[in-house]
């Protein structure tokens, strides 16, 4: 039985109840979860599970088998009983910061149109994207562009499309290192901006803020040459 992903319908939900399907040192499986499982460069969520008479700190959520999510117990933590009802609570400040970071990277993509993304990593303190690009814009120009997009407070929305649409419009896929998951028949698209020419539109399974103004002050801190046509761009949130 796969785990129901509650963050897909509400990325801002911080607490909810779930039932324990299995519990082992390798991870606790619930029938539903608020915890994003590590994927696509975004770390898995952390937080706590509480039940009558006990509590378990979750160090990170990872993908399990057959569509399940594994909630990894912190070292020395007790495991909940199978069948018990637990109260999930996210480490919300960490999750929200990762949402802001992830949305910032979508904006960064929009400032370097046409260049494939060859790698990336989202972190609470610093994030990066690698571009298949001979020469990127300056970090000052990228910072100015990012801050203008944040100040415009563009809405961030999602939709689902048939996999066939990606075949007819391959330009939607920017990431060369990670391909959108196939097999379910539909793919989730994240859109920043409105109208026929959005700021950014591409497949993504991660969590994002509702509008770019929520990101805050963002700065591109470093550009690195990682190969003949591989340029690494680092950014941070200034708060």
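-> sequence recovered:
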């Amino acid at each position: 039985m796969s785990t129901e992903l509650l963050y897909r319908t509400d990325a801002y939900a911080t607490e909810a109840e779930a039932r324990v399907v299995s519990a082992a040192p390798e991870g606790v499986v619930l029938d539903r979860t608020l915890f994003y499982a590590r994927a696509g460069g975004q770390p898995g969520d952390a937080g706590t599970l509480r039940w009558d008479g006990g509590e378990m700190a979750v160090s990170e959520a990872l993908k399990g088998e057959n569509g399940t999510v594994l909630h990894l117990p912190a070292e020395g933590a007790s495991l909940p009983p199978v069948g018990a009802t637990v109260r999930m609570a996210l480490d919300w400040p960490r999750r929200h910061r990762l949402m802001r970071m992830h949305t910032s990277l979508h904006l960064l993509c929009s400032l370097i149109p046409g260049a494939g993304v060859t790698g990336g990593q989202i972190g609470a303190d610093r994030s990066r994207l690698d571009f298949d690009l001979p020469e990127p814009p300056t970090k000052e120009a990228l910072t100015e562009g990012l801050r203008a997009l944040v100040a415009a407070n563009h809405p961030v929305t999602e939709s689902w499309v048939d996999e066939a649409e990606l075949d007819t419009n391959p330009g939607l896929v920017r990431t060369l290192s990670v391909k959108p998951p196939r097999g379910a028949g539909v793919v989730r698209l994240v859109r920043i901006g409105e109208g026929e020419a959005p700021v950014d539109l591409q497949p993504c399974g991660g969590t994002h803020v509702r509008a770019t103004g929520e990101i805050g002050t963002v700065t591109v801190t470093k550009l690195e040459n990682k190969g003949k046509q591989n340029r690494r761009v680092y950014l941070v949130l200034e708060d």
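The longest strand covers residues 15-24.
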